[in-house]
Amino acid sequence: MEAIVLWQHKWGLTFHIPWYLFLGGLAGGTMTIAALADLLAGTRERYRYLARVSAYLTVPIIVVGGLSLTFHLGKPERGFGFPLFFTNYQSWMTIGGWILGAFAPLSIAYAAAWYFNLGRPIRRAMAVVGVPLGVLMSLYTGFLLSAAWVVPGDRWYVPLWDNRYLPVLFVLSGLSTGLAACGLGALVSGRLPWLFTDDRMVEETWAVAKIASLADVATILAEGAWVYLFFASLAVGTLGQQMAFKLVARGDLSPWFWWGFVATGLAAPLLASAVETIFERIFHARPGWILYAKFILVLVGGLVLRYIVVWGGDLKAPLIFPPSMWPVPGIGGPPIPGPGG
Amino acid sequence: MAQAQVTIPYREADGPQGKKEPARMKFYVDVKRCIECGGCEVACKNENNVPPGIARIRVVTINEGEPGETNVAVPCMHCSKAPCVAVCPVDALYHRPDGIVALNKETCIGCGYCLYACPFGAPQFPKGSAFGARGVMDKCTYCAGGPEVAFSERERRLYGANRIAEGKLPACASVCATKALIAGDAEEVANVVRQRMVARGAGGGAWGWEAAYGK
Questions:
Q1: Nearest one of A304, A294, A287, A319 to A219, comparing CA atoms
Q2: Where do the structural domains in chain B lie, given as residue ranges?
Q3: Residue range B153-200, pLDDT digits in tens
Q4: Is A283 exposed, middle or buried (0-12, 13-18, 19+ CB in 10 A)?
Q5: How far apart are CA A54 and CA A179, in angstroms?
Q6: How many CA atoms lie within 13 A of A79 on its CB side?
């Protein structure tokens, strides 16, 4: 078929946006985990510890991620003043500005409530808000890229950024990387004896890492299934979607996709969990290094996924000939079939 | 920032209630006529002092050197339902009353969301500090300048020429030797396109190689 294929580069040129998407999703994941663990803890000490580690982790992650987002702008000071300058409430960037603007203070307040022991009712009230806000934080990064229902006619011209799959993929990836970060945080804090006054807490850190590891297995399986559905639908989709599929799964980005994401972020962590279970059940050993490796692999895979999605977004939906088919209202014919349309 | 009254082209025929109707400015690109001379690109760069790295209009060739080679100039299409206007968080992109999609470089924060929303690749991000503005988008202005005092030094520096206020059409359409790129009020443009379709026939032949080089 005759078609003009446009490539445009901006967000993939610097580290800012891929790292923000990674850190924003990660922070959403850790906040959700912290709040859920807090609400479900009851009297179990290890859930309390999980909530505490996650709450502390969320703050630096969202601060670095938010700064990375703001400084990719041509005018960063207007990013900080978003309530004044972001006037188009149709746009996901404005909605996301408010989500981030609510999320960051809440995560700081929540961590402070843990640190200063402000009492359970205050903390849990924040956790009740924190669960939806954390999910929204991860979800929004996906909606930003796929601009669901914002563009008139629900059409978006970046075929890889499919609004049916990307938001859920980012939530699953945010949760799996969030669990990995919590597990890693627990393992590292278990190595810092000055943090604890008794040995019982050090024992708890291992239990927390195990919980995070186990929950991560389930999340990674769900993420893998979702990625499969995503790419299966791309492979049989519109011309642009097929081109995006070829770019990511067969073309220039395929080493990143297969080795960087599928192998590193999905397959290797599952293998690591299997090996770890064998060690524990059969040899009655406690191989900490396997858990360390697993958590780091999941985090690397999550970051590579964001890079793939941003780099793959440089491919525009092809403009099909003749131009009378282009979406020029008043003169042109029907709009070109975009993803989601 | 000095906000200026923008000069808008009006339709000659009166609209309903005897009111003057603003024109609905449009481009149309005729792939049967475009010969890939690049005159529109040069005229645009010359008229607007467009820096290297930005192409407000560019001629695209597909099937180059093969039967069915087709050329087409791609400027901003100034869509009625413009995705760039829909996604811009700060409302820097807006519709003028005459339908031209304009960019306010004072309010633009350079996030690049419009770059990904546009199907034609019209909004572009300059490398370096082009146009005296730091890190903001640049796009085809339909040679209508920007929201500044018309013909002012500032408008010239930020946006380029303001031919619409002078009563002229965009530079690219004005220089097009084969009248492949036509500009003007949508009704007028549609009339020209209709005449051409009647003259040379519509259907697949109108767009294909056969009409020009076939038996």
A1: A294
A2: 31-208
A3: 999 988 999 999 998 999 999 999 999 999 998 888 888 888 887 777
A4: exposed
A5: 9
A6: 17
As a whole number of angstroms, the distance between CA B215 and CA B212 comes to: 9
Name the residue among A6, A8, A73, A11 with its Cα closest to residue A240: A6
Q: Which of B56, B74, B85, B90 to mutate to test the interface with A (most CBs of A within 10 A)?
A: B90
In words, the CATH class of domain B31-208 is alpha beta
Quick one: pLDDT at residue A49? 82
Single-letter amino acid code for the residue at A311: W
Q: Is B112 on the interface with A (CB under 8 A)?
A: yes
- Which residues of chain A neighbour B91 with C-beta distances below 8 Å? 87-88
Q: Going residue by residue through chain A (341 aa), what tens digit of pLDDT does each one get?
A: 577 888 888 888 889 999 999 999 999 999 999 999 888 877 777 788 888 889 999 999 999 999 999 988 888 888 899 999 999 888 889 999 999 999 999 999 999 999 888 888 899 899 999 999 999 999 988 888 887 555 555 578 888 998 889 999 999 999 999 999 999 988 888 777 666 656 666 777 888 888 899 999 999 999 999 999 999 999 998 888 999 999 999 999 999 999 999 999 999 999 999 999 898 888 888 788 899 999 999 999 999 999 999 999 999 888 776 555 444 444 444 444 444 33
DSSP for residue A250: I
- CB of A81 less than 8 A from some CB of B: no
Flag whether residue B116 sits within 8 Å of chain A, measured between CB atoms.
Answer: yes
Chain centroid to Cα A224, Å, comes to 14
Q: Are strands A3-4 and B10-14 parallel, antiparallel or unpaired?
A: unpaired
| Fold of the domain spanning A12-254+303-319 | Formate dehydrogenase/DMSO reductase fold (1.20.1630)
Helix (H) or strand (E) holding A268: helix A268-282
- Chain centre distance of CA A147: 16
Residue boundaries of the structural domains of chain A: 12-254+303-319
- A143, A339, A337, A155: which is closest to A245 by C-alpha? A339
User: A311 touching B, CB under 8 A?
Assistant: no
Determine contact, residues A335/A341, Cβ cutoff 8 Å: yes
Closest C-alpha to A301, from A160, A179, A124, A128? A179
